[in-house]
Design brief:
With 281 residues, this protein is of the alpha/beta class. It has twelve helices and seven strands. α2 packs across α3.
């Protein structure tokens, strides 16, 4: 997935950054949390919907790239409870989009997202409901690739709120930047500019200034398009085996890779490639 980070004024208080473009296919059958952990999806949806405001807008394009917009600019695109429910529904739509190959997530009005709406956070302040909210979002989000705009800054400000990441952010941050850097980012709330982001692996690329190379969204689409050329089933299979290797125990990841291989072996794209002898071109 691709992230491009926008205005630093927002990102210095954000839990994330920019717009996330992602290769599709969340492994919905392997939720991190389930009813075994006391996670009742219907119950938490009802609680979240009590806090309306904003929307999550989805545009699916013929290119196979969809654009998902976090739209709540009056609250700096903070997630209201109803927006969390919207996000889960939009992810489900994307899972069922057979022609989908990539997704870019952006914020409205040239900002990304300032985290959760504090009105909802205050109302769901007991540990049990807070954990359920994190579980809900964990089951909605998967992150892979990140882009930063040239004037952007990423900062993890959880400790200033008396918190730690709760959507799987800490565990994934350790995988991305290693434990030493994760400690610095979370414990020091360091501001990460594009240069440092590239250095520690938090950013996969940096977009150019808007005037010289198009809007951030246009640049993100161009950047993402180079990694999703080809049939949608193959691109989705690539994402699935990589995600399995990152998220699952080795034995389960190997089984998943074998299963996914079976879905493309002898498939239309494989047979066409064999017929055209394209392997060494």
């Amino acid at each position: 997935m691709v992230l491009y980070a926008l205005r630093w004024q927002l990102l210095k208080i954000s839990r994330g950054c920019g717009a996330w473009g992602r290769l599709l296919q969340r492994q919905s059958s392997r939720f991190v949390y389930s009813n075994i952990h006391g996670f009742d999806q219907v119950e938490i949806r009802e609680k979240l919907q009590a806090f309306p405001g904003g929307s999550i807008d989805l545009l699916k394009q013929d290119s196979g790239i969809a654009v998902l917009t976090i739209n709540n600019p009056s609250r700096m695109n903070a997630f209201s409870g109803s927006m969390m429910v919207d996000l889960e529904e939009k992810v489900t739509q994307l899972e069922n989009w057979t022609d989908g190959k990539g997704l870019i997530v952006q914020g409205a009005a040239q900002t990304f997202c300032s985290g959760s709406d504090l009105n909802a956070v205050r109302a769901i302040s007991n540990p049990q409901d807070g954990m359920k909210m994190c579980m809900f979002m964990q089951n909605s989000l998967t992150r892979l690739l990140r882009l930063m705009a040239s004037d952007s800054v990423i900062q993890f400000v959880h400790k200033h709120m008396g918190l730690v990441p709760g959507w799987g952010g800490a565990a994934r941050l350790v995988h991305i930047v290693r434990s030493q850097n994760a400690l610095k980012l979370l414990g020091g709330a360091l501001k990460v500019d594009p240069k440092l982001g590239l250095q520690i692996g938090l950013a996969d690329g940096v977009l150019e200034a808007e005037d010289s190379a198009g809007t951030p969204l246009e640049q993100a689409e161009n950047w993402l398009s180079r990694y999703i050329k080809g049939p949608a089933p193959v691109i989705r299979a690539v994402k699935k085996v990589v995600l399995s290797g990152r998220e699952l125990p080795l034995s389960e990841a190997l089984r998943t890779e074998k299963d996914v291989f079976g879905t493309v072996w002898g498939g239309p794209a494989n047979l066409e490639a064999l017929a055209s002898k394209s392997k060494h071109k």
